[in-house]
Amino acid sequence: MSRTLVLVRHGQSEWNLKNLFTGWRDPDLTEKGHAEAKAAGEKLKARGLKFDIAFTSVLQRAQKTCQHILDCVGQSDLETIRDRALNERDYGDLSGLNKNDARLKWGEEQVHIWRRSYDVPPPNGESLKDTGARVWPYYLHTLQPHVLAGGTVLVAAHGNSLRALIMALDGLSGEEVTGLELGTGVPVIYRLNADSTVASKDILAD
């Protein structure tokens, strides 16, 4: 019984590189992003991991990261489910803006609150709490059953959708999760107990 859940934030995107708020916009990976995704795959291959099913968002940076990983572990044709429940948080009116320009427009403190607080959304966008409101049910009803059935499940998604998921898995408070950072292309491996609690957590950072 594997009961393994692997979470990977997508590799660097073109808008990460340009310091833009991305959200539900759909830029591609950079060369570095492709390399980060392949490196994640090699790390998982070195652990001998094989997946039973993969999940990703409807955004290409996560989908391409997922595919690179599957290619590396020799499972290019694995069933992969794409769902907007795993999308990055929607940054609303900030989407497409340079983060420094946003600070000039709204002030450093306000932009910091929008970016890092748990429950304060940017204008016309989602807070981390709002993101969790779509991620958590998807985990409980779609992802977790595959894991608890003994499977090994890959989820390639985004910084904030994965932060919301890790918040639930690790039992973090709204205050604690504000300090959680996820590196691009860094696999996080959870092994679950039969009762769905976390047995172990392993971060494959460089």
Automatic annotation (TrEMBL):
InterPro entries: His_Pase_superF_clade-1, His_PPase_superfam, PG/BPGM_mutase_AS, Phosphogly_mut1
Site (Transition state stabilizer): residue numbering on this chain: 158
Active site (UniProt): 10, 88
Binding locations of substrate: 9-16, 22-23, 61, 88-91, 99, 115-116, 159-160
The protein's name in its UniProt record: 2,3-bisphosphoglycerate-dependent phosphoglycerate mutase
Organism: Manganibacter manganicus
Catalyzed reactions per annotation: (2R)-2-phosphoglycerate = (2R)-3-phosphoglycerate
First and last residue of the signal peptide: none
GO molecular function terms attached to this record: phosphoglycerate mutase activity
Pathway annotation: Carbohydrate degradation; glycolysis; pyruvate from D-glyceraldehyde 3-phosphate: step 3/5
Gene coding for it: gpmA
Role according to the record: Catalyzes the interconversion of 2-phosphoglycerate and 3-phosphoglycerate.
